[in-house]
Amino acid sequence: MQPTLLILAAGMASRYGSMKQIQSFGPSGETIMDYSIYDAVRAGFGKVVFIIRKDFAEDFKAIFEPKLKGKIETAYVFQERDAYLPDVTVPAERTKPWGTAHAVLCAREVVKEPFAVINADDFYGKDSFEKAAAFLTTGCNDKTYAIIGYELAKTLSDNGTVSRGVCEVDADNKLISIKERTKIYQEGEKIVYEDTDGKHEVPYNSSVSMNFWCFPPSMFDATEKLFHEFVKNNYTDIKSEFFIPLLGDEFVQKEGGTIQVIPTSAQWFGVTYKEDAPDVKASVEQLVTNGEYPASLWG
Q1: Domains in the chain with CATH codes
Q2: What is the pTM of this model?
Q3: pLDDT reported for residue 265
Q4: What are the E-state strand segments in the chain?
């Protein structure tokens, strides 16, 4: 069974203003998503599922359907605030959906095979998709999930601080915990983060999660149960978000599951700041020049 790629793209419209303005980084107008899908296709993924906002569905399909037709099966899922809600009355001021783990849950009806989850606007690299495909076809089961782990130093921005899920792993690269560290940056030879207690060093070779997860379809049952608990505890907080690391933590700490942190040598690129865009464009162009990608991905 070929694995599925699930792309979290519901937040893109608000960032870009309109789906018609998705930023192009490749020489033939390719978005970062195009590169992820291209890497997934050549790694053996059989389907891509886009999680998007309903009001941008037509614009979105108009961009992706013509180029992906015949290359990979496509499906579309809408993340809406009331999807999978338990029986509670959510304050009217709450207009946004419930975060990344809720977005994954919204794909329950269309994802029936082992699957990977990625962000729409992160460039993950060929190696990461090959490793995810290998895990999803041979190592993924009800008791074993995975994260593709990036070297922290390869995920920093020259234009400001970043937030990263820093992974603590054991000798077998199994996840012990993920700690969300905000305001991470390079200072001389060191990498540091800041919090209310001041400045702290992060080990240079730390593995970090860039929200590239690998799951079996059985995770949907546990996710829905946990989501209902989360909403009942947080529904009055209109900014509360149900994030994927909460699932991972519950899976390891309470359910006795294993999350394998699979190291990748790939260089991550992302647009954390608008000033990052020219660097990402230049990096993509260099990969094309080096022959890692064709000048026209879908040509």
Answers
A1: 4-289 (3.90.550.10)
A2: 0.91
A3: 85
A4: 4-8, 47-52, 73-78, 115-119, 122-123, 144-151, 162-169, 175-187, 190-195, 198-202, 207-215, 258-263, 269-270
